Amino acid sequence: MIPAEMETRIVRYGDLKPCKTAFIDAHTPGSDQKENFTIIGGGVSESPDQHVHINLPHGFNIGAAGQPPKCRNSLHSHRTAEVFFVLKGRWRFFWGRWGTAGEVILEEGDIINIPTGIFRGFENIGTDYGMIMAILGGDDAGGGVIWAPQVIGDAKDHGLILGANGKLYDSKKGESLPEGIGPMPLLTEEELKAYPELSPMQVVGFGVRRYYDMVAMAQKTPCLVIGEKGIIRDKPGFEVGFLTRDSSSADMHQHDRPSVLMPMKGHWKLKWDGGEATLNPGDTASVPAGLMHTAVPAMTGEASLFHIVATGDPAGATWSGT
């Protein structure tokens, strides 16, 4: 593959195109300053304004959320896995019907695999603009977002209505639901019983791993963070690996599915059969299936990188906490 072709599969952090109207809480005070990024795959945005950087099937989606301090993402759920790692800032993740079942604070490099089927939200509690990178299971990411009922009610009070077709309509712009399309039905009290109120021990013990613990585990060989044999034992339809300077190798290898490289710290040299490119923290590189490649640190200093590849497992509900 010539460098020009490979460059089309590399999304640079500085080239990310945000959408500020991606979800139903885009006008709700406290959530109205967030930016959503869809990097690989169709994502779960409810807005036609969402830009998709790489619209190729990988078996999973890659996205990101950027938020200023004190900005939060409202309570929602997914039918497939949702994994985050903190690229920049300090973040509070919370969960439960009202967001009060538990919470955990994540620092830069920390990762969380949120159990499928619980309401979850997150907030930037740092002092500067923060960014979290997201991996969603499946090519269609489970068909969209399931919102806690109060989120839909709050959004309507501020001019946004979510149609049963999964699209947003903004009354502030004179928009209304099209003929024959009703509003998205609210979950009933009986349906809400299917969304467990997991304890902090269940969520944190299962799905949170700290950056420097992963660094220690990846001293000699890459660390499998999420996978059937990972330090987070789960089968969400993809595996997440982690490597550092000490566990990187110049040996070329290939995968039978597309893989994704996401640097966390330092500068990395991605080399493939036909060229090379430098990756920086926040960049996302999609490597085609069957392409011989490797990644090694390009400079001295701390260097770490997340690696994602799809597996043959179905991208449905995984660990439920029960």
Automatic annotation (TrEMBL):
Residues 69-132 form the Cupin type-2 domain. It holds the Pfam family Cupin_2. Keywords: Metal-binding. One of its GO terms (molecular function) is metal ion binding. InterPro entries: Cupin_2, GPI/OXD. This is Cupin domain-containing protein.
